[in-house]
Amino acid sequence: MKKSGAAIAVACLIEQGVDTVFGYPGVSVLKIYDELYKNRRSIRHILTSHEQGAAHAADGYARATRRTGVCIATSGPGATNLVTGIAAAFMDSSPVVFITCNVPESQLGRDAFQEVDITGIAMPITKCCYLVRSAGEIADTMREAFALASSGRPGPVLIDIMGNAVVETAEYEPSAGHAVTARRAARLLAPVRTDEEGVAAVAKALAEAERPLIMAGGGVIRSGASEALLALAEKTDTPVCTTMMGLGAISSAHELCLGMAGVYGDARARRAVDECDLLLAVGVRFSDRVTGPVETFAPKAKLVHIDIDRSEIDKNVLTDLHIVGDAGSVLSSLAGKVKKLSHAAWRDSLAQTKERVPGAPAEYVRAVRRAVGSDAVVVTDVGQHQLWTCRYFGFERPGELITSGGFGAMGFGLGAAIGARTGDPSRTVVHITGDGSFRMNLTELSTEVKYGLPVVTVVFNNGSLGMVRQNQRQFMHSHFWQTKLDRGPDLMLLASAYGLEGRRVTDAEELYEAVKELAGKGGIIDCRVGEDEEITAG
Amino acid sequence: MKRTLSILVENSAGVLSQVTRLFSRKNWNIDSLAVGETQDPSVSRITVMVEGSDQRIRQVQAQLGKLLPVISVCELDESLSIHREFMLVKVRAEDKDSRDEIISIVNVFRASIVDICRTSLMIAITGDEAKNGAMLALLKDFGILEMARTGMIALERGSATIYDATKDRSEFDYAKSVVSAEDKDA
Asked: Is A532 helix (H, G, I), strand (E, B) or coil?
């Protein structure tokens, strides 16, 4: 059956089970929008205010639903506006298919209006970029892109379709499968097999360790391996710390959970990393925010690394043992291989670690937690509020936290919250942000209102770029320069400008009340924080 | 120490740029690079020389393996493989003595003179790094006017091939699990 390239592209979206896309139209991509119009009963399009918001929304959608997010933008500036969103998805291994249209092939390379080499720009921040030159290539490319985005270590993929390719017609055969060439299938779709010898070696190391520690990262959440993690930890009586991306992989209420490791981590987790004699790191990539200087990272430990991405092994730290494989299946095999162990003395000694007494921001975070319980999705922006949230919220389930961990993109939060709520309307979505981050993309408030998405935005408002200010105090002789944000807007007026409710709160109790009240309808809470409050390691 | 990596890639637009950009963004310096089609026109072979420890080389291989058009990567041990590079060198030769001496050097290295004029000679030589380097060192005294080199290429000695590594790495039966667009193309 002959179809236009644009019709093939949209048919392929439907084939892949896509029912929601985020995007922003433009002239180059218009033909695809016309097909989306024709298929508006099958695919809901969420129009954002800016392509960056759409990119973060598709990412937030993917993280909240564990499905592949889809984001559509036009050529040139539409495409470049996606870049921060693509990078954020890439760094946190979030499966998103980005679709852009470029100028027609006859114009390519002539610096035509709204032409940009987006596949060149996005190459280092995607699993793959495709430049599609003809309608005939669209179906196979789209099918392969979806397979690629969600397989192995997930991540974003970009498809840039030339203007002529959406207009021309080509033969289209509906298909439910992926179209990966034999050569590529061998590399991409072959399941990563757990290396049984490796498992035996790790099980032996675990049995010999006196002070073992598990570090769970985002890979555990992506793999849905929380149960396997818990089974192994409980059977071997091994305490568990997480990275920021791993928060929720184990419930913070569990007695084996030590909290978040790393430079801004909890005291118990940090001490455990310093003192353990075996560190079993699962689905982590040893980011510098986790290790600090690698020379002094886990100095007494035998390092064991489990990851699905071979290139993460020995990338940042040299390991003693490693297993390349899916977190869930490796953890299950390990649990099957080990005997029941007890490490009471080690756990007791860690339990005695004193945590620093947290300041007022911790109370705010806990007030939000009390108001929404553990069933909500918490989306953060980037900065002090993000770290306070990570440290003090007390995450209990995988998927409870959505944050830009690796890329640290300020402005990520609101878009991601919109995506999360779109994907999972059954959950309350709380967007915890700072006044600096919020201002970067608050234009997406109109998206939230337009689609009736009740996102509660809690702004930790200290009138400054708190995290940067804190660094200026520590490292720049307190030269507080260009980090003051005392120029508005008035968040209450802003809320009413968008037809949202606003609350201004000055203590934790008021915040609790405000979150409770706005949870069902959304709104903005201006939560005053002192500018000298800092986030410190526990 | 310089190490040699041999990379099989799909022969399509933009592949070389993907490979070289990976090197630059990982801050790995490429010492030599050569690219060409293989017996299968849909596949090209890239030979790269990089400086690095075992850990670095493993990391380079793993990162290259993640690029979609990369089919296979293997390291070629210098002692178990043949390395060759082709160079064209234009040398100043303004008098008979210089010409004679250069010609005798060229003969010793089994290189050849491919162009001659009153004031210069052009030499073509094929060899590994040691041989080509030794001749260049001698020619320097006469004055090298300009030169061009292809970059090092290499193949493993014996009947083993890079394709063995491909099969081994993927542990994959090609025949069975193909949902192929390739078949359609053919």
From this structure: coil
Res A181 pLDDT > 80: no
- Rounded to an integer, what distance in angstroms lies between the CA atom of residue A370 and that of residue B69? 50
Q: Is 0.85 exceeded by the ipTM?
A: yes
For residue B172, list chain A residues with Cβ-Cβ distance below 8 A.
185-186, 190
Half-sphere exposure of A415 (CA within 13 A, CB side): 34
Encoded tokens for A459: 């702004």
Alpha helix ranges (H) inside B109-145:
129-139
The C-alpha of B157 sits at a distance from chain A's nearest C-alpha, in angstroms, of 25
User: In Å, what is the CA distance from A305 to each residue of A71, A202, A484, B175?
Assistant: 33, 10, 42, 33
3-state SS assignment for residue B34: strand
Q: Which of A388, A94, A80 is nearest to A264 (CA)?
A: A388
Instruction: Kindly state whether residues A87 and A214 are assigned to the same domain.
Output: no
Q: What is the pLDDT of residue A502?
A: 98
Answer for the pair A255, A239: CB distance below 8 angstroms, yes or no: no
Specify the pTM: 0.94
Per-residue pLDDT of A392-432, as tens digits, reads 999 999 999 999 999 999 999 999 999 999 999 999 999 99
Residue B80 DSSP one-character state: G
Across the interface, do B62 and A177 touch by the CB < 8 Å criterion? no
CATH topology of domain B82-149: Alpha-Beta Plaits (3.30.70)
Q: How far is CA A406 from the centre of its chain?
A: 8
For residues A240 and B74, give the distance between their C-alpha atoms in angstroms, rounded to a whole number.
38
CATH superfamily of B2-76: ACT domain (3.30.70.260)
The answer to whether residues A52 and A89 belong to one domain is: yes
Nearest to A452 by CA among A470, A429, A477: A429
Question: B150 exposed, middle or buried (CB, 10 Å; 0-12, 13-18, 19+)?
Answer: middle
Query: Closest chain A residue to B59 measured between Cα atoms?
Result: A311
Chain A residue numbers with beta carbons less than 8 Å from the beta carbon of B177 are: 185, 189-190
pLDDT digits (tens, 9 = 90+) for A429-455: 999 999 999 999 999 999 999 999 999
Helix (H, G, I), strand (E, B) or coil at A296: helix
DSSP assignment string, A352-369: TPPPPPP-HHHHHHHHHH
